Amino acid sequence: MRLQGIAAIAEQLDLPQHVLRFWEKEFGHLRPMRRNRRRYYRAEDVEILQGVRTLLHDRGLTLDGLRRVFQERGPTFVRAVGRGEIASDPLDMVAMGLALAQLPPDRQHALIEALADPATCRALADQCLGQTHRAEAAHARSA
């Protein structure tokens, strides 16, 4: 496990250190290790910080909006945004939220978990493409 200090992470994210400390207090999902009164961030913490930065600074979410994202989608989603694996465009997020709202809660949770995992996303995409190709082939045979 590679640990990085707050100065290195602040430089990497182009943010002041006090912003990272503020986010740590605001969002309980950030829990850097502490040794000798210093903060050390794990890779998972850095992914969350990158996701928080993307959602707040690049996509314009408010702190309340980001709290809702953590509450409704969890840190797995925010980490995936930080890794660039999930579209974080506001319109994409609204469309996804509207579609999710129509699903039963258990299906919502399952879908969110699946979307946060790149391997699962690829498997689902491959499955959908396979179904599309079979449907196109069947249509071509009948035409």
UniProtKB/TrEMBL annotation:
Residues covered by the HTH merR-type domain: 6-72
Any one GO molecular function term: DNA binding
Any one biological process term the GO annotation gives: regulation of DNA-templated transcription
Record-linked InterPro entries: DNA-bd_dom_put_sf, MerR-type_HTH_dom
Domain of life: Bacteria
Name of protein: HTH merR-type domain-containing protein
